[in-house]
Amino acid sequence: MSLTPDQVRRIAHLARIETSEAEVQTTLEHLNGIFSLIEEMQAVNTQGVEPMAHAQDLAQRLRDDVVSESDRRAAFQAVAPETEAGLYLVPKVIE
Amino acid sequence: MLNSSLKELAQALAGKKISSVELTQLYLDRINRLNPAINAYVSTQPERSLAQAKAADARLAAGDAGPLTGIPLAQKDIFCAEGWLTTCGSKMLANFVSPYDATVIQKFDAAGAVNLGKTNMDEFAMGSSNETSFFGPVKNPWDQSRVPGGSSGGSAAAVAARLAPAATGTDTGGSIRQPAALCNLTGLKPTYGVVSRWGMIAFASSLDQAGPMARSAEDCGLLLNAMAGFDPKDSTSLERPVEDYTRELNAPAAAKPLAGLKIGLPKEFFGEGCDAAVMAAIQAAIEQYKALGAEMVEVSLPNMKLSVPAYYVIAPAEASSNLSRFDGVRYGYRAPEYDSLDDMYAKSRAQGFGAEVKRRILIGTYVLSHGYYDAYYLQAQRIRRLIAEDFVAAFKQCDVILGPTSPSTAFKLGDKAGDPVQMYLSDIYTIAVNLAGLPGMSLPCGFAEGLPVGLQLIGNYFDEARLLNVAHRYQQVTDWHGRAPAGLE
Question: Which fold would CATH assign to domain A5-43?
Fold first, then answer.
């Protein structure tokens, strides 16, 4: 398998990582190298094998629906790039 | 003092031979002097460390001390610690002062340990050489032209250079064990779910696990006692009774303390691909274990060769999801210029992440995307099960598994930095353990041309206490783990 420059542009867009044309070329080479390693998997017959998502087959725990944390909004927003009146500021999305 | 075990340090503190403030200052002075060359720490806050030491001294004076009270430790910069820069080795978080503590940090604080500083690491723990850090590579204290391993390379170098008595690490594909091997340390990755992941910046959540990095198995046991335990804040934390991981270490000395122990030697660990000098040290360790009474059994992990390909689907898939939170909105880096919300995301992430992190996000995005999910992600998860089942079968024939930790000793800085595939293959012996969720450790077993060689021991689920004992018995009759690099006075 070999990726095309268009596929690299598409996944970079899906991942929201701006990628210049020069970067597309080097990224393509590196990713193709990595996928040639990954392709070794394709020769393995895994029919009937249950996918293993996790090291421990656990059911998710439930907890009581109670308040457990105090209000620390100011502390958490202190590390934000831009806030106003307790809200996170981003570029305008609705005209 | 610099070569004392944690137990000896605790005795010195209890006996008032030294105070925690003095011990902490001793390490802070060494960090000041030696860290510019080694680059093991990315941040220190001497006043905070000394305040913690002072509080520990008060606890010691009041007779309220535990085994780690007053002992300075280095913390990998992946653990959020309130009031500390927590960068994860990335430009993305270069300005992030954590507003809260990871559970691991809370537990060490409660034990009275002193936080000496945050250690350098591969960016978001993605790397095997510490060269992907935004803050520059760490130098291996045994040879400063070589890498310390990764991703917990800063923690490994800090302990090896005696810039900390012990440290924390995290291990997603070998990131505790491989740097421990390359820097002559003892490091343990516990069973998945034993140590809380809360506040530990996520890379691949089904694989990430924190553990101790120290100079001996005994030290690792003491640290694990403080780190382990159920945490309701971590959805995959396991509810298990509290254990004393050092409980087997105090058994009386015997001529053959490991009599009855069956050590499995997987033939896949002893084929081609491992440096001859590394293999010679491993073979010598096997002879030593026979002398301690252990019996060797040949086992097989037939799917181990598939662990690297499966890992490089699963880990990037989980990473692409986990790292989507870094968008320049709530914390971390935001690009200075952009012309829309989408543009702000794309530019912040392009400028904030380094090349290896971007590669892994792109791989993960691709293997999870429509039309490729079954062929890559599901196939990798099926292979993951085959790998885990190999271990289940092997542990029917043996108690622990032994092999090399890394196929080579520390390589030169820059040697593999341009070739991701070669870098990935340096974790060939460690990755399968993470996929299966088993505990594994690395301990020093000799030198090749002056560079440390690591021996890997893999245990069955929840067999940390036995693993530590198997390592401890070896360390009682060898002195590899006690050796220190020269020229760091």
Answer: Histone, subunit A (1.10.20)
